[in-house]
Target: Pyrimidine reductase, riboflavin biosynthesis
Amino acid sequence: MTLDSTQGDPAILSALEHLSYTWSWGRPPRLLTLTHRPPQPAVPTTLSGGVGTQTASDLLDQWIDQCRRHRGLVDVQRDLGVDAVGVAFETGDQHILYSMDRSGVEYLVEGQRYSTTRSAAGANLGGQALDSLAEKVAELTWRLAGWPAPAAGARIRDMWPKPGLVDLDDDELHDRLATDAGHVRLLAVTSIDGLAAVNGTSAALSSPGDQRVYQAVKRDADVLLIGAGTVRAERYGPTPLSALQIARRRSMGLAPHPTVAVVSRSLDLDLTGPLFQQHTGRHVPPRPILIAPAASAASIDPALAEHVDLVVAGETDVDLAVAVQQLRSQGHQRLVCEGGPSLAGAMTRAGLLDEICMTITPQLLAVPGPRITDSSGAGQGADDWQLRRSLIDEQGNLFLRYDRLPR
Ligand SMILES: NC(=O)c1ccc[n+]([C@@H]2O[C@H](COP(=O)([O-])OP(=O)(O)OC[C@H]3O[C@@H](n4cnc5c(N)ncnc54)[C@H](OP(=O)(O)O)[C@@H]3O)[C@@H](O)[C@H]2O)c1
Model:
């Protein structure tokens, strides 16, 4: 999320500046929605004059409550094509227009009588005041404006059990893929001929549609479980989330970010890699969890130990059933296993997967590479699976969701 309003939409900023010029002192706080509709590039609409509200924070609370209770209000606003939501209020000798667009970009205009200044970081508001308003504005923006348009090529529709005639927005996509609490789900992408990686990574198999599904599945997770091999091969790190995505997670009772949990025996992890990158800003992703067997944990490098929360499971190899149990006992109910093949194979053989979300990309590659589950360990997965949902994007990627049939 950025606080630099100059990166946002100039039409939204200019509408806010115009409002700032016309603001009268002594008004109660107001909630604004901004739309891009001709003939004006940005049209502000006042949704509420703050009846019975003393502060901007109260006003936002009232509207969040209204939106949570009245689905119709949200639908009408989305039909109007809202692009940004803002709040207008006074503080000290300033009036403030603070707004956020559906990408999570913030806009701040501070007005003093007949002059306005753009401010990048809300200097006069004080960090904490702005932080608490930002979370509320983010939730209202998500509810009233919805999500940004998907990237080129990433429009997705229902295919089965019912074919869809309209493109799914990110909330609808999430509804199709929402996981059940207590479930462990595997997330994977493969070519038609079953390849899980090309030249050492899965990048060539992915697509804008796959990225949308990937984000929707991860957005639901408490923990992202990943093998150390993938962390090394893909220089894996936490995915940045927009303010709106964080607001959506919070509304579901989830932490702002999922926690990454790496499974490793060697504990060979690069402390300068993206997984351990220092983050700044309002929401900092949590420290990664490192799941290791007792034999490895006993000799962990102190520098690594400082950067992780250690979970010990098993003696010489990680006992994955114990690891999953420990994660659950820490309150992590929705686990998404991102692979790679060694970890996914071991999870399959241990019978620990409840769901699979896989993308089949329309590529036939005929090159060497791993499958989505490695078969090198002892035993085999003996479960049967049932297709629950399939979606398709405009490039022909298939998104399949399977549930394990009861044993
Ligand atoms: N297509 C897809 O959906 C997808 C998804 C993810 C990854 N990939 C690709 O898959 C490749 C990497 O796969 P991979 O199979 O080599 O790696 P991986 O499954 O990500 O990780 C394997 C490593 O995890 C640790 N591990 C797994 N099970 C363990 C256990 N029971 N006890 C202790 N440690 C355990 C070990 O780490 P240590 O070596 O540290 O001991 C092991 O070497 C990459 O090319 C990546 O791009 C594809």
